[in-house]
Design brief:
21% of the residues lie in helices and 29% in strands. The strands form two sheets. It has a three-stranded antiparallel sheet with strand order 1-5-4. This is DUF4440 domain-containing protein.
C-alpha cells in the first residue's frame, strides 16, 4: 500500500480484533488467531520520536508487550478504548520480499487461548 497514512487506524483495528477474539474464546475448546500482513514498516518498527501520539498505547511494534486497558489519546475517545484480558509479546516475522521500495512484507500473529480470555478480575464475569 502506498501513501495511505493510516497506521494508527490499522493498530486500533488490529487490537479491536484481538479483544473481540478474547471475548469469543471463552470456552476450553475455542481459540483464536489475529493475523496482520503488511508492508507498512511503521507498524513493526518502534517510534523514534518521543512526542506522544493519540495511538501511543496501541503501538504494535516488534517486541512490544500488550495487556490491560489501552486508551486512545489518553482516554479522549472512549469508543476506541480496548481492554485486553491476556498478555501478548508481539513478534513480527518476515513474510515476503517483493521488488521495489515498499516490497518488504511482514506478518504479526497473536494467538488467543481460552486462558487469555478468562477475566483477570473477580468482578468480571
Amino acid at each position: 500500500m502506498r501513501g495511505h497514512n493510516a497506521p494508527d487506524v490499522a493498530r486500533r483495528d488490529f487490537l479491536r480484533d484481538v479483544a473481540r477474539l478474547e471475548r469469543f474464546c471463552d470456552r476450553e475448546d475455542q481459540n483464536g488467531l489475529a493475523l496482520l500482513i503488511t508492508n507498512e514498516a511503521a507498524l513493526w518498527r518502534p517510534r523514534q520520536r518521543r512526542m506522544p501520539t493519540r495511538d501511543e498505547e496501541f503501538r504494535i511494534h516488534h517486541g512490544r508487550q500488550l495487556s490491560g486497558t489501552l486508551l486512545w489519546a489518553g482516554g479522549s475517545f472512549p469508543d476506541n478504548t480496548r481492554v485486553l484480558r491476556g498478555a501478548y509479546t508481539l513478534a513480527w516475522r518476515q513474510y515476503t520480499q517483493l521488488e521495489g521500495s515498499s516490497g518488504e512484507f511482514r506478518c504479526l500473529a497473536v494467538f488467543i487461548t481460552p486462558s487469555a480470555a478468562q477475566p483477570q478480575w473477580p468482578h468480571e464475569t
